[in-house]
Amino acid sequence: QLLESGGGLVQPGGSLRLSCAASGFTFSSYAINWVRQGPGKGLEWVSGISGGSEFTYYAESVKGRFTISRDNSKDTLYLQMDSLRADDTAVYYCAKSTGPNHYHWFDPWGQGTLVTVSS
Amino acid sequence: QSVLTQPPSVSAAPGQKVTISCSGSSSNIGNQYVSWYQQVPGTTPKLLIYENNKRPSGIPDRFSGSKSGTSATLGITGLQTGDEADYYCGTWDSSLRGYVFGTGTKVTVL
Q1: Which residues contact A37 (CB under 8 A, 6 or more apart)?
Q2: Do residue A106 and residue B2 have CB atoms under 8 angstroms apart?
Q3: Tens digits of per-residue pLDDT, A48-58?
Q4: Which among A63, A75, B29, B50 is most buried, taking Cβ atoms within 10 Å?
Q5: Residues A109 and B44 sit within 8 Å (Cβ to Cβ)
């Protein structure tokens, strides 16, 4: 199970931190990802982090603005989002990967948290 | 713009078959596993196919996947009204060093 939180309304240029609480599996053994979906749009992978935090990956669209991290002692994933823009408006999902640093498929997915960037 | 291209929509009558293509390149589909996701409107995406052609527990065998070269295909047989959804392919891209999703295909049951 994955449960996201932290979404909300933020002004352009602002910051927000999303959380994803995991349960039901050995959290530290799996890479976890953030995937977003803008209104009426398709799925866009945002970022991924390996089980032990050794490796992080980002989409070009968020590189330098977003930071992914995790706390394995709390079974929780984070996404720090800075310099937010209107086109960051989306539902943000966290999704579990297939191994400690494998990204072949995602299952399960959380229910999503909505981020709205608007003045 | 996604690096994986899918047709925007496909449709067929109940009981018929549809196929959805996913076209990529040697840096993604050509040397990586392909997965497929189903997203019924208003719900969370669900894994449908993994490792090109394997079905998770609970996914009926009406759904099938295949891969050839730099393209992959999802097939749905015995189409049901409950299959109306958006379908996305996905895979790792070794050049981009990131995961990529297809553009998405809306399946309509006529």
Answers
A1: A43, A44, A90, A91, A93, A112
A2: no
A3: 999 999 999 99
A4: B29
A5: yes
Chain A within 8 Å of B51 (Cβ-Cβ)?
yes
Q: Is there a contact between A104 and B50 if contact means CB atoms under 8 Å apart?
A: yes
pLDDT for B2 equals: 79
How far apart are the CA of B66 and the nearest CA of chain A, in angstroms?
15
B1 to chain A, closest Cα gap in Å: 10
pLDDT in tens, B33-91: 999 999 999 999 999 999 999 999 999 999 999 999 999 999 999 999 999 999 999 99
The minimum CA-CA distance between B30 and chain A, rounded to whole Å, is 13
Distances in Å between the Cα of A90 and the Cα atoms of B41, B61, B77 are 15, 33, 33
In 3D, which of B3, B5, B55 has the Cα closest to residue B28? B3
> Which chain B residues contact residue A48 at CB under 8 A?
98-99
- Nearest residue in chain B measured CA to CA from A63: B98
- pLDDT tens-place string over residues A70-116: 999 999 999 999 999 999 999 999 999 988 888 889 999 999 999 99
Q: How far is CA A66 from the centre of its chain?
A: 9
List, in sequence order, every beta strand (DSSP E) within chain A.
2-5, 8-10, 16-22, 32-37, 43-49, 56-58, 66-71, 76-81, 90-96, 113-117
